[in-house]
Amino acid sequence: MDGMAIADPRPSLMVTNDDGIDAPGLRFLVDLLVAAGRYRVLVCAPDSEQSGVGHGITWHRPLSAKRVEIMGATGFAVSGTRADCASLGISGKLFVGTIPDLVTLLLDPYCLIMLYVTEIFYSNRGYYYAPYAIC
């Protein structure tokens, strides 16, 4: 080898929620996904509880993202809402040029699992991006 990094061939899967980076449900799902070994697991979640915010985005203050140690995953705690986390996570900026192949949104412990295509509006760029997502 000439010192170049070998790209990980596994699909990338991003996990986010509105309960915060330390929520037990988020950590449980991430642990399961990492243990499966089939995905590059990316985590981008609010740094604190953000339930009830809906699709709200942060306007009046800058966002910050802090690297968080999660064994087997790449994780960031963001000083914003779930929508901020989703936008930042799929922007290609947070995960060094990686846009997740699949986004999992943990909304509620009683949420039915369904696969759908979602549109996430980038207010700062003015365009839509449609990754696959699981609720």
Written description of the protein model:
- The protein is of the alpha/beta class and 135 residues long.
- It has one domain (12-134): Survival protein SurE-like phosphatase/nucleotidase (Stationary-phase Survival Protein Sure Homolog, Chain: A).
- It has 2 helices and 9 strands.
- The protein has helices at residues 24-36, 82-89, and strands at residues 12-17, 40-46, 65-70, 73-78, 102-106, 115-117, 120-122, 127-129, 132-134.
- It has a 7-stranded mixed beta sheet. Strands 7-8 form a two-stranded antiparallel sheet.
- Residues 1-5 and 110-128 have low confidence and may be disordered.
List keywords for this structure.
single chain, 135 residues, alpha/beta, Stationary-phase Survival Protein Sure Homolog, Chain: A, two-stranded antiparallel ribbon, 2 helices, globular
Oligomer: single chain
Helices and strands, in order, run as EHEEEHEEEEE
> What is the name of the CATH superfamily?
Survival protein SurE-like phosphatase/nucleotidase
Shape: globular
Termini separation comes to 41 Å
- By CATH reckoning, the class would read Alpha Beta
Structural class: alpha/beta
Rg calculated over all Cα atoms:
15 Å
Strand content: 25-35%
What is the tally of helical segments? 2
CATH architectural group: 3-Layer(aba) Sandwich
Low-confidence stretches: 1-5, 110-128
Number of domains: 1
Give the total of beta strands: 9
User: What share of the residues lie within helices?
Assistant: 10-25%
Mean pLDDT across all residues, rounded? Answer: 77
Widest sheet: strand order?
A: 3-4-2-1-5-9-6
CATH topology: Stationary-phase Survival Protein Sure Homolog, Chain: A
Largest sheet: 7 strands, mixed
